[in-house]
Amino acid sequence: MRVIKLLIPLCILVLGSGCAIDVSPKAFIHQDEQPLQLDTSSLQKAIQKDEAQVSITTVQLTNAQGLELVGVAVSYPKAKANIVFFGGDGQTINSGSGLIHRFGQIPANILWVDYQGMGASGKAEKLKVANLKSDALQVYDYAKEVFPKRLPTLVHGLSMGSLMATYVAAERPVDAIVLDGALNDLPSVVTNMMPSWSRIFTTLDIHPDLANMSNVDAIKDYHGPVLFLVGEKDRITPVAFVEQVYRAAPSEHKVLYVIPGQTHFHGMKQEATIQRYREFVESLK
């Protein structure tokens, strides 16, 4: 995720004086200057390499603000689940559509829609977390309409997307959650990205829209199946952070898989991760 951009204007410590870091939606959540043309070339290349039979549909949804949300729905033969994917901050279909084909190895159908203000989706004049959450529910509802109802529908949240996944699970009867590099709580993640020597001098000025962004709190009332994925070498949401969320989950059907050698954002690259994911999906039956 792009929390590190909060730290670019590093506070200059003068004579021991401290500083405050602005943790606002504008500073915390990436926004492109303008919508881009949807590009699924990396997905197309991956499909061609495997000679896979896949159906790709461009998705265009108009949200409550009148913005156009753009994404793709990809269907695989003999799919075992439907997955609604919520990416990390700044992660767009254009920059990583090849990731979709990794889910196809489960195999699973997948819906990925760019967040408003990112990638191919429209941008609001002012970004509000409440609107991102509303969009997430709309995307999930769309998946329930278009994907086979006989299959379980999972919400998969990567990094910042984990907050969207737990929110949707609190508002909709999802069949399972996958939390990939999950944030425990916002202050912990931002502090973790700061140089250790600067922490004693620095305070966080967290905007009210972000104050309640905590997976530790959000998951406390979710009793359904949960798969936790985290890279062994993840420095943004380290294993200890994800373990906090794991312990807070009351579910009797929860699995934590620490991915050997992996960092943030790259867990699905390993075949072992795909196999663990496949086993989790099969356990839902």
UniProtKB/TrEMBL annotation:
The keyword Signal applies. Gene3D superfamilies: alpha/beta hydrolase. Coiled coil: none annotated. It holds the Pfam family Hydrolase_4. Keywords: Signal. InterPro entries: AB_hydrolase_fold, Hydrolase_4. Residues 78-200 form the Serine aminopeptidase S33 domain. Transmembrane segments: none annotated. Residues 1-20 form the signal peptide. The keyword Protein biosynthesis does not apply. It comes from the Bacteria. This is Lysophospholipase. It comes from Alteromonas aquimaris.
